[in-house]
Amino acid sequence: MEANQSFVNFSEKSSIKVALVGNPNSGKSTLFNALTGLHQKTGNFPGVTVDKKTGTAKLSATVTADFVDLPGTYSLYPKSLDERVTFEVLCNPVNADHPDITIVVADASNLKRNLFLVSQIIDLKIPVILALNMIDLVEKEGDTIDAVRLSEKLGVKVIAISARKKVGIEDIKQALLQPLPVPQYDFIDVKNFAGDLIDKIKAVVKVNSDFAAFQLINNFPVISYFDKKPEQKQKIEAIINASAIDHNKLQSNESVERYRVINRIASDCITEKSAIKTETFTHKLDAILTHKIYGYAIFLVILFFIFQTIFFLARFPMDWIQGLFVIISQWATHTLPAGELTNLFVNGILAGLSGVVVFVPQIALLFAFIAILEDTGYMARVSFIMDKMMRRFGLNGRSVIPLVSGVACAVPAIMSTRTISSWKERIITIMVTPLMSCSARLPVYTLLISLVVPQDKTISFFNYQGVILMCLYLIGFIAAMVSAYIFKIILKAKEKSYFIMELPVYRTPQWKTVGITIVDKVKLFLFEAGKIIVAISVILWFLSSHAPGDRYQMIDKKYASTEMIGKYNEKERDAKISSEKLEASYAGILGKAIEPAIKPLGFDWKIGIALVTSFAAREVFVGTMATLYSAGNKDNSQTIREKMRNERNPETGLPVFTLAVSFSLLIFYAFAMQCMSTLAVVYRETKSWKWPAFQFLFMGVLAYISSFIVYHIFK
Amino acid sequence: MKGKKVLKKLSQLKIGESGVIDSFTDEVMSLKLLEMGCTPGEMVTLDKIAPMGDPIAIKVSGYLLSLRKEEASTVLVAVMSEN
Cβ of B82 under 8 Å from any chain A Cβ? Predict the structure, then answer.
């Protein structure tokens, strides 16, 4: 080591800022989990929809480390949103997250490609520790990596670790407390490619290294950190515009040169046992999992299993949660003083909370599966075998899982689109997933179908009701695919979409990662989408339980008369009162107000009220119908069905729920976006009200037009 | 086996066939491929083709990389011709 080597030492500070960077699949997150344990939380990088995972660890009695897990990237070229975050944090010394020390995690079994990012970070001349992960895999192959020599060649500290086996974690913690060499010599000399320009930039801006200036030149349009220094920005812009540089050429020269040096270093430091790699396990498994018959068959079985789990298995905890909330509500109603405040608490807030917590089992189960599929390396194969089919519709191979999960519930399904790296494909998946018929539509479908289709009617072997139900699911799927295709044409991509990705080797899943993923996703949903859901729930409660003026008192007075008491028993009277009160409420007024708009679809104002209240959750339709038709016990579908069947149009005297109206309503429920929870999650996932608003409109228009057509065909 | 070197597109390789990366025909695409380790002079082997004929997976610098045929067709590789 050179005598004039400079060192940095942060052990005097009470907290050291440490960033973790590395290629996707390098085990970066595993190391992050091993370092921070459960002391971690997920937030957002300011202004972007990129998850920011932070955590802490005690290094000594007096020093703690604040870790930030930066998005995985193959290079410091900011092509995607994720990569831009990593780029800005590392390259901009005044960024709020700019670290004292950067730990670069590299997959030792795939060292050459991993060294590319390592070498770029070294050239930024920031204090670096190289964590040579999966060293156990390298040794298992019989290969060796000379970490000492590698450290000498790179000029940084190198620590061989196995994050999965928790080997070397303490070494890393200790290394953070020791003096660290600041990389001194350039890995490659970028001045060979743009020497004058780098000098000119360095005269205007203070940068750590030639490469930092080079990065500035090459990525200027996407760099945001000069936004607050317009003067400097103008100067840099002028320098770049005055030169006739070819950005692509510069980047390509840099990449080729880096790999030239990397190849030299790698052959110096890696001793391979034999040139022919066995890698039998991954290769053999791939032969089955990407096979043209078995591959799809196995994927289908996995999808079926996931679907069954979130559709049926989740029902039990969901019922417990709902049961628990019923008990709490009853307790609150009896214990708290009767009045408006208790009413708000029980029917507004508690109902909203119940509507939030009830999603937790489905979210937890779906993310358990997704974490396992990602962690084992299987998810990349799903992309591989589904890409061609899904690409035609503007979707991604990974869109299959959200779409299928959408049949159970769109909320966890939309949260799972995070694994789709292309912005456009992800947005399209989010937009069309709610068209898949979810489990909340099922009670509506069953009620309406049973209303117009006799139970015993069959088409050859098939039950007629069952066939219609299946058609509804099919229609939802077709609508999703057709919409996706249309979005593919009209949406402009923010960034170029590549399919160029690694197929990682198969590994056994880590249960800790699975657990952390579940906790993370549940927390995100509860605290971010949850707020919005509770707020809307309170609004809906107000609308359906309040009326302008003294309307409610009039109803109470009317039924308090001796005539009414003689006419109906107490139960009948209560049912009549709730029915009339709902009609008189703001929701009722809204339902009546939209009647002219929904009349062309065959709907009357009572259906209008149900459409309004259904926004809390689609299955509320059944409860609203029960109240409106004074069916009393809302769980008694027999009674609701009878009452609805007997309902006559006051003008024509004909039944309201004809085949045409029922089919029209079925199609409306299949297509319309009547779910506040989904909208809240779309907002959370896109960080903009633009997308949920657009989704609400497009699905509404689709529902309206389709219902109109269906009504007029069957009328 | 003796033969002479011919250039073909990476997308035209047969399973198990190897070639040495020669050049790229699409500059923007080449940048992404370069950072993934597909540099000129590097040996690549076609490992598998997805069941529907696209995408493909290649072995390069010790790992498996999948890419669409459209993307692979921008890479020219030198292979030994068999005759």
Answer: no
